[in-house]
Design goal:
By secondary structure, the chain is α+β, with helices and mostly antiparallel strands. The chain is 39% helix and 33% strand. It has a five-stranded mixed beta sheet with strand order 3-4-2-1-5, with helices on one face. Strand 3 and strand 4 form a beta hairpin. Helix 1 (31-50) runs antiparallel to helix 2.
Length: 102
């Protein structure tokens, strides 16, 4: 299962951690993992291209995004990422779980 931990302070995301593998299908055929990876990397690339206000760490089965400075761009793009992941978790509740921390 993919576990997404969203950390917020004053309603702003300051860290997002995505861990694990969905287990939906074998590696290379797993549409849930592919969707999470695609959404996450697209969001990271967008933020870096527009205002370079985040730092991220990527390893096998782990993606950690840290906000270095709060901007309107990273706030909107990270909120959008979380909404997309939440929609995916509704469709695949056995494969992805979202946790919010305030």
């Amino acid at each position: 299962m993919i576990k997404v931990n969203v950390k917020r302070q004053n309603d702003k995301i300051y860290e997002l951690v995505i861990k694990g593998h969905s287990g939906y299908d074998e590696i290379g055929k797993d549409i849930v993992c592919a969707a999470v990876s695609s959404m996450s990397i697209t969001t990271i690339n967008g933020i870096i291209a527009l205002d370079d206000s985040i730092d991220y760490e990527e390893k096998s089965g782990l993606l950690k995004i840290r906000v270095l400075r709060d901007t309107e761009i990273n706030s909107k793009l990270l909120d959008n990422l979380v909404r997309m992941l939440e929609e995916l978790s509704i469709q695949y509740p056995k494969n992805i779980e979202i946790r919010n921390e305030d």
